[in-house]
Amino acid sequence: VIDYEKEAGEVEYGRALSPLLLFESDGLWRLLAQHEGLIKQYHLHKILAARTTSKVFKRVPQQQIDDMFRYSFRSWIGTEKHTVRIELSPTWTRRIKPRQLFESQIIEERGDGSIVFETIVNSLEEIASWVVSRGSGVTVLEPEELRAKVQNLARAALENYE
User: Fold this and answer.
1) Which string of DSSP letters, residue by residue, matches 61-86?
2) Is the dihedral of CA 89, 158, 149, 29 positive or negative?
3) How far is CA 88 from the centre of its chain?
4) Interatomic CA distance for residues 141 and 128, integer angstroms
5) Which residues, in sequence order, are bridge partners of residue 28?
6) How many helices (H) does the chain have, and how many strands (E)?
7) Which DSSP category does 105 fall into?
8) Edge to edge, what strands does the sheet with 28-35 contain?
9) Dihedral of the CA atoms 159, 86, 42, 62 (nearest 10)?
10) Could you tell me if 115 and 108 are in contact, meaning their C-beta atoms sit under 8 angstroms apart?
C-alpha cells in the first residue's frame, strides 16, 4: 500500500498495488504494478510511503508484461495497438536506421535517402511526443489521428513563444 504524489501537491493515500516489475526509462526508475485490475506505472520518486499488506494478488503472466513493453518506448503502458507510418528525411534516416526501436518495425527505403518507418505502438500520445521532439524531417503518414495529435502538440509548444 503506497501514498503517491500524483501531481505537485496532490497525494493519493492508501493505494493498494500488486508490484510486477521495477524498470528504468527516460532516466527515471518506475514501478509497474496492478491497481484495481489495471496495470499502471508509478515513478519511484513520487512514492511518499509504502506499507505491506496481507492482501493476496493474482499473478500477471510474464507474456502480458512483455507485450506491454513490446509496443512502447518502455515508458508508456497501454493496451492499445496502432500501426503507424512515419516518413524520415535522409538526415533522420542516418540517425534512426541503425537502431531497432521496436520489434515490429519495418523500414521501406526510398530512392532519395529517406525511409518510411512502420511499426505498431500502444500509445499515440507517446509516439506523437517522440515525433514532435524530432522537429523537421519527421512526418506522420498514418494514421490521421496521430497526425492530428502531432499538430496539436506542435501548436501547443509554439504557444510558449507567442
Assistant:
1) PHHHHHHHHHTSSSS------EEEEE
2) positive
3) 20
4) 12
5) 25
6) 4, 10
7) -
8) 18-25, 28-35, 38-43
9) 170
10) yes
Task: Give the amino acid at 60.
Answer: V
pTM of the model: 0.75
The grid cell for 4 is 503517491
Nearest to 72 by CA among 130, 144, 21: 130
Residue tagged 511518499 (cell numbers)? 48
User: Which SS3 state, helix, strand or coil, does residue 131 take?
Assistant: helix
Could you give the count of Cα atoms lying within 13 Å of 4 in the half-sphere of its Cβ? 16
Residue 79 grid coordinates: 493496451
The single residue listed with the C-alpha cell 509548444 is 157
Q: How far is the CA of 141 from the CAs of 88, 132, 133, in angstroms?
A: 10, 14, 17
- pLDDT tens string, the chain, 162 residues long: the values are 999 999 888 999 999 999 999 988 878 899 999 998 888 899 999 999 999 998 888 888 888 888 778 888 767 667 789 999 999 999 999 998 888 888 889 999 999 999 999 999 988 998 999 999 999 999 999 999 999 999 999 999 999 998
